[in-house]
Specification:
Distance between the termini: 29 Å
Helix content: 25-40%
Strand order of the largest sheet: 2-1-5-4-3-8-9
Number of helices: 5
Order of helices and strands: EEEHEHHEHEEEEH
Shape: globular
Strand content: 15-25%
Number of strands: 9
Radius of gyration: 17 Å
Protein backbone atom coordinates (compact mmCIF):
# COMPACT_ATOMS: atom_id res chain seq x y z
CA UNK A 1 0.00 0.00 0.00
CA UNK A 2 1.40 3.40 -0.98
CA UNK A 3 1.76 6.05 1.68
CA UNK A 4 1.38 8.84 -0.87
CA UNK A 5 -1.73 10.86 0.03
CA UNK A 6 -2.03 9.01 3.34
CA UNK A 7 -2.67 10.96 6.52
CA UNK A 8 0.26 11.21 8.93
CA UNK A 9 -0.21 9.12 12.05
CA UNK A 10 -0.42 10.57 15.55
CA UNK A 11 2.84 11.26 17.39
CA UNK A 12 4.22 13.46 20.14
CA UNK A 13 7.85 14.44 20.54
CA UNK A 14 10.18 16.66 22.51
CA UNK A 15 12.33 18.73 20.22
CA UNK A 16 15.32 21.01 20.51
CA UNK A 17 14.55 24.30 18.77
CA UNK A 18 16.29 27.67 19.06
CA UNK A 19 17.84 26.89 22.43
CA UNK A 20 14.63 25.52 23.95
CA UNK A 21 12.91 22.18 24.42
CA UNK A 22 9.48 22.27 22.79
CA UNK A 23 6.64 19.85 22.17
CA UNK A 24 5.81 18.85 18.59
CA UNK A 25 2.90 16.61 17.59
CA UNK A 26 1.27 15.52 14.36
CA UNK A 27 -1.18 18.39 14.94
CA UNK A 28 1.72 20.87 14.84
CA UNK A 29 2.25 19.98 11.17
CA UNK A 30 -1.31 20.78 10.11
CA UNK A 31 -2.10 24.05 8.34
CA UNK A 32 1.25 24.45 6.60
CA UNK A 33 3.60 22.53 4.33
CA UNK A 34 6.14 20.47 6.25
CA UNK A 35 9.23 18.41 5.57
CA UNK A 36 9.93 15.57 7.99
CA UNK A 37 13.58 14.66 7.50
CA UNK A 38 14.75 11.44 9.20
CA UNK A 39 18.42 10.66 9.70
CA UNK A 40 20.15 7.78 11.53
CA UNK A 41 21.92 9.46 14.45
CA UNK A 42 23.53 12.53 15.95
CA UNK A 43 27.33 12.74 16.09
CA UNK A 44 27.78 10.81 12.85
CA UNK A 45 29.22 11.50 9.41
CA UNK A 46 26.75 11.98 6.55
CA UNK A 47 24.00 13.30 8.85
CA UNK A 48 25.62 16.65 9.71
CA UNK A 49 26.31 17.35 6.03
CA UNK A 50 22.63 16.86 5.23
CA UNK A 51 21.35 18.84 8.20
CA UNK A 52 23.81 21.65 7.47
CA UNK A 53 22.70 21.72 3.84
CA UNK A 54 19.07 22.05 5.01
CA UNK A 55 20.09 24.78 7.46
CA UNK A 56 21.69 26.75 4.62
CA UNK A 57 18.46 26.65 2.57
CA UNK A 58 16.07 26.92 5.53
CA UNK A 59 15.23 30.59 4.82
CA UNK A 60 14.11 29.62 1.30
CA UNK A 61 11.88 26.86 2.68
CA UNK A 62 10.41 29.33 5.19
CA UNK A 63 9.75 31.81 2.37
CA UNK A 64 7.51 29.10 0.86
CA UNK A 65 5.70 28.62 4.18
CA UNK A 66 7.41 25.29 4.81
CA UNK A 67 8.65 24.10 8.20
CA UNK A 68 11.46 21.55 8.41
CA UNK A 69 11.48 18.91 11.16
CA UNK A 70 14.58 16.75 11.44
CA UNK A 71 14.07 13.47 13.32
CA UNK A 72 16.40 10.84 14.73
CA UNK A 73 15.99 8.22 17.42
CA UNK A 74 18.23 10.26 19.71
CA UNK A 75 16.84 12.25 22.65
CA UNK A 76 16.24 15.99 22.69
CA UNK A 77 19.14 16.22 25.18
CA UNK A 78 21.46 14.61 22.63
CA UNK A 79 20.26 17.06 19.97
CA UNK A 80 21.13 19.94 22.29
CA UNK A 81 24.57 18.51 23.05
CA UNK A 82 25.26 18.05 19.33
CA UNK A 83 24.03 21.59 18.62
CA UNK A 84 26.31 22.96 21.34
CA UNK A 85 29.42 21.16 20.06
CA UNK A 86 29.20 21.21 16.25
CA UNK A 87 29.64 24.34 14.15
CA UNK A 88 27.59 22.74 11.37
CA UNK A 89 24.69 21.84 13.66
CA UNK A 90 24.78 25.28 15.35
CA UNK A 91 23.44 26.69 12.05
CA UNK A 92 20.15 24.77 12.46
CA UNK A 93 17.10 26.96 13.12
CA UNK A 94 14.45 24.28 12.50
CA UNK A 95 13.11 21.89 15.19
CA UNK A 96 15.15 18.74 15.84
CA UNK A 97 12.67 16.06 16.99
CA UNK A 98 13.58 13.28 19.40
CA UNK A 99 12.24 9.78 18.74
CA UNK A 100 13.76 7.55 21.45
CA UNK A 101 10.65 5.32 21.50
CA UNK A 102 10.91 4.88 17.70
CA UNK A 103 7.19 5.65 17.28
CA UNK A 104 7.67 8.40 14.67
CA UNK A 105 10.15 6.35 12.60
CA UNK A 106 7.75 3.37 12.74
CA UNK A 107 4.79 5.58 11.76
CA UNK A 108 6.65 6.72 8.65
CA UNK A 109 8.02 3.25 7.86
CA UNK A 110 11.72 4.17 8.16
CA UNK A 111 12.76 2.39 11.37
CA UNK A 112 15.63 -0.07 11.02
CA UNK A 113 14.32 -2.35 13.79
CA UNK A 114 17.52 -4.31 14.45
CA UNK A 115 19.58 -1.12 14.75
CA UNK A 116 17.06 1.14 16.49
CA UNK A 117 17.90 3.85 13.95
CA UNK A 118 15.99 5.59 11.17
CA UNK A 119 16.69 5.31 7.48
CA UNK A 120 17.36 8.53 5.56
CA UNK A 121 13.69 9.24 4.87
CA UNK A 122 12.30 12.51 3.54
CA UNK A 123 8.56 13.24 3.61
CA UNK A 124 6.85 16.31 2.21
CA UNK A 125 3.50 16.82 3.91
CA UNK A 126 0.75 19.15 2.73
CA UNK A 127 -1.25 21.46 5.03
CA UNK A 128 -3.95 18.78 5.44
CA UNK A 129 -1.38 16.37 6.88
CA UNK A 130 -1.17 14.17 3.79
CA UNK A 131 2.14 12.82 2.51
CA UNK A 132 2.86 14.13 -0.99
CA UNK A 133 6.51 13.14 -1.53
CA UNK A 134 8.58 10.28 -0.14
CA UNK A 135 12.29 9.66 -0.62
CA UNK A 136 14.28 7.02 1.24
CA UNK A 137 18.03 6.71 0.76
CA UNK A 138 20.52 4.07 1.84
CA UNK A 139 22.56 5.04 4.88
CA UNK A 140 25.65 6.04 2.93
CA UNK A 141 23.82 8.25 0.41
CA UNK A 142 23.29 11.86 1.44
CA UNK A 143 20.43 14.02 0.19
CA UNK A 144 20.43 17.38 -1.58
CA UNK A 145 18.43 20.22 0.02
CA UNK A 146 18.28 22.16 -3.28
CA UNK A 147 16.59 19.20 -4.99
CA UNK A 148 14.20 18.87 -2.05
CA UNK A 149 13.36 22.57 -2.38
CA UNK A 150 12.62 22.06 -6.09
CA UNK A 151 10.32 19.13 -5.28
CA UNK A 152 8.48 21.13 -2.62
CA UNK A 153 7.91 23.96 -5.11
CA UNK A 154 6.54 21.44 -7.62
CA UNK A 155 4.22 19.88 -5.02
CA UNK A 156 2.95 23.30 -4.00
CA UNK A 157 2.42 24.28 -7.64
CA UNK A 158 0.44 21.13 -8.43
CA UNK A 159 -1.66 21.59 -5.27
CA UNK A 160 -2.47 25.17 -6.27
CA UNK A 161 -3.13 24.36 -9.96
CA UNK A 162 -5.47 21.36 -10.28
CA UNK A 163 -5.25 19.81 -13.73
CA UNK A 164 -1.58 20.69 -14.21
CA UNK A 165 1.48 18.54 -13.58
CA UNK A 166 5.20 19.32 -13.41
CA UNK A 167 7.46 17.41 -15.82
CA UNK A 168 10.94 16.11 -15.04
CA UNK A 169 13.46 18.75 -13.97
CA UNK A 170 10.68 21.33 -13.64
CA UNK A 171 11.85 24.58 -12.11
CA UNK A 172 9.68 27.39 -10.80
CA UNK A 173 8.46 29.43 -13.79
CA UNK A 174 8.90 26.57 -16.30
CA UNK A 175 6.02 25.29 -18.42
CA UNK A 176 3.79 22.62 -16.93
CA UNK A 177 1.60 20.03 -18.61
CA UNK A 178 -2.16 19.65 -18.64
CA UNK A 179 -2.73 15.91 -19.03
CA UNK A 180 -5.15 15.13 -21.84
CA UNK A 181 -5.82 12.62 -24.56
CA UNK A 182 -4.11 15.00 -27.02
CA UNK A 183 -0.77 14.58 -25.21
CA UNK A 184 -0.74 10.77 -25.21
CA UNK A 185 2.25 9.57 -27.25
CA UNK A 186 3.31 13.12 -28.17
CA UNK A 187 5.75 13.88 -25.38
Amino acid sequence: MSIINSQIKPFASKAFHNGQFIDVTDQTLLGKWSVVFFYPADFTFVCPTELGDLADLYPQFRDLGVEIYSVSTDTHFTHKAWHDTSDTIKKIKYPMLADPTHLIARNFGVLIEEAGLADRGTFVIDPQGKIQIVEINAGGVGRDAAELLRKVKAAQYVAAHPGEVCPAKWQEGDATLAPSLDLVGKI
